[in-house]
Amino acid sequence: MSSENQFLAQRREKAQTLADLGVKLYSNTFKPADRITDLLPKAEQLEPQQKEEGGATYSIAGRIMAMRKFGKAAFITIADATDQMQVYVRKDTVGDEQFSAFKKYDIGDIVGTRGQLFKTKTGEPSLHADFITMVSKSLRPLPEKWHGLTDVETRYRQRYVDLLVTPESKETFHKRVEIIRLVREYLSDRGFLEVETPMMQPVPGGATAKPFKTFHNALNMDLYLRIAPELYLKRLLVGGLEKVFEINRNFRNEGLSTRHNPEFTMLEFYQAYATYDDLIDLTEDMISSVCQAVKGTMNITYQGTEVDLSPPWKRLTMAEALVEIGGVGPEILADDDKVISHAKGLGIKLEPQAGAGKAKTELFELLVEEKLIDPTFITSYPTEVSPLARRNENDPSVTDRFELFITGREIANAFNELNDPVDQRERFEKQIAERGDDDEVHPVVDVDYIRALEYGMPSAAGEGIGIDRLVMLLTDSASIRDVILFPHMKPEEKMQEDQTPDQLTDNG
Question: 3-141, what's its fold?
Fold first, then answer.
């Protein structure tokens, strides 16, 4: 029998022994009155070997994370959602019956206990238990405490274990919640209305991506998990809601990587009578403010690289970036045939119908994007690759659009919104004509959206920010899977009953 199977067998034997003693393995009667984080300061004030005066008792519940047994006494460490605390359990204090059952408890069990605060002679804040009971029996051992979950894939697949034994993971997700709260408050304080738009849509729009498709039986129609909320949020602008935002999931049936997950969290917001210049200022202020609140500084380190988020941030047109950073000659950018030839010469594959705008964008991604470490706004994207953005009035070949790059990756995308229904229809039709063999990318024109524009949409600017990527930046996380509680993974090759996390141990 493998060591893993031995551990599991031992756990089940102990569970059966406890059940035979009349112990409820999964009780629902113990209700803790206190949180560990509130008790620790009280215990810290005591002198070594001193009990709190007054005889006050406290009750806590949590998981046993460590255990030291000494015959008729034991020290255990209990962790609740707030912190960890040592508990002293003595046979002559809790009684023979409870102590007999307690001897069968394991690391990983969830217990409830009650007692008085004291400090050990070594200065450890502790609870001297006069009562202890089982709340939930753990049938699988936790990973060995000094190593935790050393296998990254196991951490992602078994996040419930990762959170138990990896404090850094728990801290990351606490920060994620804080970042989203701060973003929400920032926009709400400036008059933006938080809304909810459909997750299932009859026409997948708002971005160029392959959607997930399903079928609604009652409506007898295909529906698509949304790839972006953009077209619905702009319908709200038509309806007179002048400042709106949504923080929610998008779904794209595409590849997996350290930067991509099939479902991800986006912030999208739209403001009537604003321009993308206004959103540049807002974005710069919002992200730097959130960083200051979360990190206590705007000078951060991401994967060993120093990044300064202090405003003002650099601003370059795509053409300027290609010349200054990408080393592309201005004479090449000025000639459509030359820029296409240059791109192909660098190994970039272009569809036959692709124009100079597409070639410039591909060159930017190849030669510039990863070099943009400190925050940089890239503006003046080619119209060819911006089907929903407003053309620049002085140069119709580009749009009033920006993308924000930090640490070599896109964080935000924004533009002055196209509100001309005739121009919008033409761009939709052109996009469909150029989609190639993939008929799942924008399969039809969204005629209802065109109809909405025909009622008149005010001039506006809108923006999308990848929440997951922002959290990665502010938590120094290398992979998007580090900041998503349950990232999508390939199926496990073999799922057996005896599988346990790596680096198993037991108190044996």
Answer: OB fold (Dihydrolipoamide Acetyltransferase, E2P) (2.40.50)
